[in-house]
């Protein structure tokens, strides 16, 4: 039998950061429910961080944490906290994270990051994620969402599969399912694929079904983009 | 270490149980100790295909619940040495299987057998998930038509995300494509997807192509795994499949329309 494996390593994860001027329970609840209503599946159990401002006083962190749990979200911690806010957040069991280049492992007792403080071989840096890469085929029924990022799929996207990105989508195999680029509303985003046989393509909410895609580019490499409020397909 | 192979498809009626019986029998014929486990709790069929329906005393659920031991429950095939069947329960439903229970039974089987063939129920619900969860390899049974191909695609997604290997981050399940009910004449007429079409969509290695054959129906009705009918095209195609599963390279047969010879034309084929 091998030795049980145990190691502490610094890693970076994309976290959604909430910026809100209104951190009362009622205010947050309304805002979150509205956001969740737009895309119920995407944020299921998503890890989140709240960005604080110094003037926000007497925040009910424990209450907010419960609210997140009730909405099926996971509140990990807060960022940009003043010393007082920091104490209150830690009392509620939240991690205090620091944004930016100078961020060091925080002193939050509840995070593992603190325990590798001594070695400090890998300083934790918050590098923004710009591209999500999927190496294999995306099968029917699977859904991939590249939040705030471009999406690159090296395989094919099967019929009944969905690929969604806030940025551009590149598919190096055949696109047989649905591709939704610019999901956050950016009309400058595009879809590129090596073989177009899609059920649906959409950019920033405008969409075409496969019926409209038949024609010169069906079964061929294509680039789909927005021009003057309508979708156009061109050569890759 | 025993190899656990799940025979699955997503869609019903494509030949999972027939293939499980044929592959299991083929492995046993090549001298490997094999057990075929029927995961289709509530819709037990494997016993009929294997012709041992009158010998079922205890079942899979009894073993999980500790009401019987494996030795009492396993049915030894009378025709082929090294071949055993673990029948499903007909009176229960899929919820009778628990992950812990299935794991315990598979672990116990693994001590004794070289190959454990899991005959999955159709669908993507708990029963099918249970059948594929512990698998090392998967035979994805597909008919050459679009709905079957799409369901297979769905199951392939499940294999790569919902199995124990996926959850533990181990090497992925080895996937094999088994095309059944293949009719070269209809493919030539464009009425059926070709091997190439299916392979292009599913993009996994081909392990076998079983021609549409009267022999399969005859075999099912008489409770004889089709591999025992070694004169039939389907029986031979399954034996080729088993040989490939064991790592041999075998040319694919029965892919093109057979030209009728002079004698056949005169005497009828």
UniProtKB/TrEMBL annotation, chain B:
Subunit structure: Interacts with MinC and FtsZ.
InterPro entries: CobQ/CobB/MinD/ParA_Nub-bd_dom, MinD, MinD_FleN, P-loop_NTPase, ParA/MinD_ATPase
UniProt keyword annotation of Zinc present: no
Organism taxonomic ancestry: Bacteria, Pseudomonadati, Pseudomonadota, Gammaproteobacteria, Alkalimonas
Purpose: ATPase required for the correct placement of the division site. Cell division inhibitors MinC and MinD act in concert to form an inhibitor capable of blocking formation of the polar Z ring septums. Rapidly oscillates between the poles of the cell to destabilize FtsZ filaments that have formed before they mature into polar Z rings.
Keyword annotations from UniProtKB, A to Z: ATP-binding, Cell cycle, Cell division, Nucleotide-binding, Septation
Segments forming domain CobQ/CobB/MinD/ParA nucleotide binding: 5-226
This protein's name: Septum site-determining protein MinD
A Pfam family reported for this protein in Swiss-Prot or TrEMBL: CbiA
């Amino acid at each position: 039998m091998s030795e049980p494996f145990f190691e502490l390593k610094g890693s970076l994860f994309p976290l959604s950061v909430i910026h809100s001027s209104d951190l009362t329970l009622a205010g947050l609840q309304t805002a979150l429910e509205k956001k969740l209503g737009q895309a119920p599946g995407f944020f299921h159990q998503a890890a989140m961080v709240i960005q604080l401002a110094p003037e926000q006083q007497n925040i009910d962190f424990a209450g907010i944490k419960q609210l997140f749990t009730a909405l099926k979200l996971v509140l990990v911690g807060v960022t940009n906290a003043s010393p007082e806010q920091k104490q209150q957040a830690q009392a509620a069991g939240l991690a205090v994270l620091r944004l930016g280049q100078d961020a060091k492992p925080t002193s939050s007792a509840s995070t593992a990051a603190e325990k590798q403080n001594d070695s400090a071989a890998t300083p934790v840096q918050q590098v923004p994620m710009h591209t999500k890469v999927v190496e294999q085929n995306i099968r029917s029924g699977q859904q991939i969402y590249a939040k705030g990022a471009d999406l690159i799929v090296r395989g094919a996207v099967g019929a009944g599969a969905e690929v969604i990105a806030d940025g551009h989508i590149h598919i190096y195999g055949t696109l047989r399912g649905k591709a939704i680029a610019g999901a956050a509303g950016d009309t400058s985003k595009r879809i590129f694929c090596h073989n177009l046989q899609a059920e649906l393509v959409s950019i920033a909410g405008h969409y075409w079904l496969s019926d409209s895609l038949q024609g010169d580019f069906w079964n061929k490499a294509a680039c789909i983009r927005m021009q003057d409020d309508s979708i156009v397909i061109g050569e890759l | 270490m025993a190899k656990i192979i799940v025979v699955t498809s997503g869609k019903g009626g494509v030949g999972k149980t027939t293939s499980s019986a044929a592959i299991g029998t083929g492995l046993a014929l090549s001298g490997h100790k094999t057990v075929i486990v029927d995961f289709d709790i509530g819709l037990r069929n494997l016993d009929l295909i294997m012709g041992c329906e009158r010998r079922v005393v205890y079942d899979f659920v009894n073993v999980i619940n500790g009401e019987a031991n494996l030795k009492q429950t396993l049915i030894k095939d009378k025709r082929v040495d090294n071949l055993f069947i673990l029948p499903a329960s007909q009176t229960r439903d899929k919820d009778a299987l628990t992950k812990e229970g299935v794991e315990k039974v598979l672990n116990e089987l693994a001590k004794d057998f070289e190959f454990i063939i899991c005959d999955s129920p159709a669908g993507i619900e708990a029963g099918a998930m249970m059948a594929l969860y512990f698998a090392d390899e998967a035979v994805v049974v597909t008919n050459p038509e679009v709905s079957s191909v799409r369901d297979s695609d769905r199951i392939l997604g499940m294999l790569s995300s919902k199995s124990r290997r996926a959850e533990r981050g181990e090497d992925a399940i080895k996937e094999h494509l088994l095309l059944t009910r293949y009719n070269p004449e209809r493919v030539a007429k464009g009425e059926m997807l070709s091997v190439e079409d299916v392979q292009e969509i599913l993009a996994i290695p081909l392990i076998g192509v079983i021609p549409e054959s009267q022999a399969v129906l005859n075999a099912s009705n008489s409770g004889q795994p089709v591999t025992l009918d070694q004169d039939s095209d389907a029986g031979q195609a399954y034996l080729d499949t088993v040989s490939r599963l064991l790592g041999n390279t075998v040319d694919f047969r029965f892919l093109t329309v057979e030209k009728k010879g002079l004698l056949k034309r005169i005497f009828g084929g």
